[in-house]
Amino acid sequence: MSANSAMVIKLGELHGVKLSNLKEKLEKHLHELKEEYRQILVMRFIDDLKVAEISEIIGKTKTNVRVTIHRALASLRKEMENDLNVKKYV
Prior knowledge:
single chain; mainly alpha; Arc Repressor Mutant, subunit A; 5 helices; disordered N terminus
């Protein structure tokens, strides 16, 4: 799963939310995540580290890193959807 497909919200569904506003909301919710979630998302999607590299750095299994990334993205997605009043899509 790429960073774009994992963290993108369809712009057509934003009902006029400005892109700069979207960025502010994303940063706000990213900072509100649990520290572990935030660190792993930053390593994966900003630092562009592979799961194996993150696993070595934090001393957890690759499976655990993948699960944590999934949970962190789900939490971030939920907060963004609530904040933007967007219905969940498949």
